[in-house]
Write a structure and sequence with these properties.
This protein has 407 residues and is α/β, with parallel strands linked by helices. The chain has 8 helices and 23 strands. The protein has 2 domains: 150 residues, no CATH class; 240 residues, Rossmann fold.
C-alpha cells in the first residue's frame, strides 16, 4: 500500500518531467489528513492530473481550481477558516472552478483536466486544493476538511515534439513509437513499443497504471519486452519499452554507446524518458508506475529505481542484482542505496549467466536501506527459464497488487 510517508514524499518531490511541474504547498487539515498531489503536462500532451488520498469513506471530495494562490477576489490567500470553527484550515487556492468527484472504493479522489494544445497556455499557472464535504474530522458543525495546495505550471512547449506513435496500442501487436529530440541537453533517438489494456481502468480509477519493461543483452523491445507486455497488459497495465544500449537487431539510437550496458547512465536516461512519453498519452496514472526487467534489463531496472526513486510505486526483475565492481553492468551500490520502492527479485539457482550472488548482494543492500523486498530463488531454474515463467509472473502480479499498483 502507499503509506502516508510515501504520499507526502511524492507530493513534495515530484515536480518535473520534461513537461510541466506540480508542486505541493501549504498544509491541509487535519494534520495528518488529506494529501493532494498532481502532474502538469505540456499543452496538448496529456492531462492535468489532481489526486487526493488520506480521506475517509462517505465524504464528497470537491476539486477546487483557480489562477491564484495569493488572492480570492478581495480576500488575501491563504485565508484562515478558524472563525468558522475549522481550526487550522485555510483556503489556499482561488476557488474559481469547483468540481465534485465521487470517491471510489479505492479511497483516492481523481480529477483530470485536458489541456488544449494552445501556445498561449505554455507556462500558464493553475492552483488547486481539495475540499471534502461531510468529513467531521475538524468540525461536526461544519463537516469540511481541506487538503494542501498544488501549484501547477504547464510546460513550455506545445505537445511532445519528436514523439511519433504508430498504430493502436490496444491491438494485440500494440503500437510502435519513435522519439527523436534534444531535451535537457541530451540528444534522444529512441524506438520502442507501447501496449494498452483493452478494458477500462479497474478499481474505480479513471487512469491506467503503467510499467516500464527492460530487455536483456542481445534482445530488444520487439522480443522479450513485447512478450512480457502481452501478459502484463491483461493485468490492466499500460506497458512501454524502449531499445536499450545492449540491444541487438535494431539501430543503437542514443544516448549511449553499445559498451554502456545494463545499469549505465545512458539506459537510465532512456527509460526515464519513457515516463515523459507515458505522461503525454493522457491516460496513465503517474502515481502508479512500476518497472520490470530481465538480466541486463534487470540491472537497468535497479538503476532506474535507484536514480529516480520518487517516480516508482513498485518494482520487480528476474536474474539481476548488484555489483561492487567499478564499471560493472550490474546495478551499482550507489544506485541500490537509492531504491525505496518495494522490490521483488527472482533468480534461478542454476543460472550460469548472472550469478545468484548478485541478487543476494542486492537483497542485502535493500535490507540495509531499509527497503521492502523479496528475493525468490527457483531451484534448478536457468537464466532463460526464469525470464518468462508463468509462476514468476503470477507472483509479480500479486506483488504489484499488494503494493497498490493494481486494484
Amino acid at each position: 500500500m502507499l503509506t502516508a510517508a510515501r504520499l507526502f514524499a511524492l507530493a513534495l518531490a515530484v515536480p518535473a518531467l520534461a513537461q510541466g511541474s506540480a508542486t505541493a504547498f501549504g498544509s491541509g487539515c487535519p494534520i495528518p489528513g488529506p494529501v493532494a498531489l498532481g502532474f502538469a503536462p505540456n499543452p496538448g500532451a496529456g492531462q492535468l492530473q489532481l489526486f487526493e488520498t488520506g480521506i475517509p469513506p462517505f465524504v464528497l471530495p470537491i476539486a477546487s481550481l483557480g489562477t491564484s494562490s495569493t488572492s480570492w477576489g478581495p480576500l488575501a490567500l491563504p485565508f484562515a477558516l478558524d472563525g468558522l470553527g475549522l481550526v487550522g484550515c485555510s483556503v489556499l487556492a482561488e476557488p474559481l472552478v469547483l468540481q465534485t468527484t465521487v470517491l471510489p472504493a479505492n479511497g483516492v479522489a481523481e480529477h483530470t483536466l485536458p489541456v488544449p494544445g494552445t501556445a498561449a497556455l505554455t507556462g500558464a499557472s493553475l492552483f488547486a486544493q481539495w475540499v471534502n464535504a461531510g468529513d467531521p474530522a475538524v468540525s461536526t458543525t461544519l463537516p469540511l476538511t481541506l487538503s494542501n495546495g498544488v501549484a501547477f505550471t504547464l510546460g513550455n512547449q506545445v505537445g511532445m515534439p519528436g514523439f511519433v506513435l504508430t498504430g493502436d496500442p490496444a491491438t494485440p501487436a500494440g503500437a510502435t513509437w519513435t522519439y527523436v529530440a534534444t531535451t535537457g541537453g541530451v540528444s534522444y533517438d529512441l524506438t520502442g513499443r507501447l501496449y494498452k489494456p483493452t478494458t477500462p481502468p479497474a478499481g474505480g480509477h479513471s487512469l491506467y497504471p503503467a510499467v516500464i519493461i527492460s530487455h536483456g543483452y542481445g534482445g530488444n523491445a520487439n522480443g522479450y519486452s513485447a512478450a512480457i507486455a502481452s501478459t502484463m497488459r491483461t493485468w490492466g497495465l499500460v506497458c512501454i519499452m524502449t531499445n536499450l544500449t545492449h540491444a541487438a537487431g535494431v539501430p543503437l539510437g542514443s544516448p549511449g554507446l553499445a559498451t554502456e550496458r545494463g545499469a549505465s547512465a545512458a539506459n537510465v536516461l532512456r527509460n526515464r524518458k519513457c515516463i515523459d512519453l507515458l505522461q503525454s498519452l493522457g491516460y496513465v496514472d503517474l502515481r502508479r508506475l512500476a518497472a520490470h526487467g530481465h538480466s541486463m534489463g534487470a540491472f537497468a531496472t535497479g538503476a532506474l529505481l535507484g536514480t529516480h526513486p520518487q517516480w516508482f510505486l513498485v518494482g520487480s526483475h528476474t536474474a539481476g542484482g548488484m555489483s561492487t565492481q567499478a564499471g560493472a553492468a550490474a546495478t551499482s551500490v550507489a544506485q541500490a542505496q537509492g531504491i525505496v520502492a518495494p522490490y521483488q527479485l527472482h533468480h534461478g539457482d542454476a543460472d550460469t549467466v548472472v550469478p545468484l550472488a548478485l541478487d543476494q548482494a542486492l537483497a542485502n543492500q535493500l535490507t540495509a536501506n531499509p527497503t521492502v523486498h523479496q528475493l525468490l530463488v527457483y531451484p534448478t531454474y536457468t537464466h532463460a527459464q526464469i525470464s518468462n515463467d508463468a509462476g514468476m509472473l503470477a507472483t509479480v502480479r500479486a506483488w504489484y497488487t499488494q503494493h497498490g499498483l493494481l486494484p
